[in-house]
């Protein structure tokens, strides 16, 4: 395994980030974001790019996931009153239904 060092100061004491404001908890572990313990610079562990950015497609996917959860919660909240109403409405039994008689 090759030793990764900070591209800004050359210090080999770096740590892999588990969270960043750019990638959040979802994308940061997959993007190999690193931080120098000496100077505090964030960089990409493979390319050495300083202050790495999350790709736009990952941001779009994150927004779609969040909107999906919000839609699910709103849908459940809107369906709760109809569920409560169906629980309190008595179901008619077959004996209590009026029967239609045919006149011949």
Give structural notes.
The protein has 104 residues and is mostly helical. It has a domain at 14-78. It has two helices and three strands, in the order E-H-E-E-H. It has a three-stranded antiparallel β-sheet. Strand 2 and strand 3 (42-44) form a beta hairpin. The longest helix has 33 residues, at 56-88.
Mean of pLDDT = 79
Query: How large a portion of the residues is in β-strands, by DSSP E?
Result: 5-15%
What is the number of E strands?
A: 3
Q: What string, H for helix and E for strand, traces the elements in order? A: EHEEH
Structural class, from helix and strand content? mainly alpha
Summed up, the helix count is 2
Form type: rod-shaped
Query: pLDDT under 50 segments (min length 5)?
Result: none
Helix content: 25-40%
Overall radius of gyration: 29 Å
- Assembly of the depicted chains: single chain
Q: Taking strands numbered 1, 2, ... along the chain, how are they ordered across the largest sheet?
A: 1-2-3
For the biggest sheet, the summary is: 3 strands, antiparallel
Distance between termini?
95 Å
């Amino acid at each position: 395994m090759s030793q990764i060092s900070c591209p800004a100061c050359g210090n080999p004491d770096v740590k892999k980030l588990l969270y960043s404001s750019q990638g959040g908890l979802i994308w940061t572990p997959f993007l190999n974001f690193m931080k120098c313990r000496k100077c505090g610079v964030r960089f990409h562990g493979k390319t050495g790019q300083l202050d790495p950015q999350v790709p736009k497609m990952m941001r779009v996917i994150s927004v779609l996931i969040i909107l999906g959860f919000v839609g699910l919660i709103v849908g459940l909240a809107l369906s709760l009153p109809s569920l409560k109403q169906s629980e309190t409405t008595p179901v008619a039994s077959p004996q209590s239904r009026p029967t239609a008689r045919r006149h011949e």
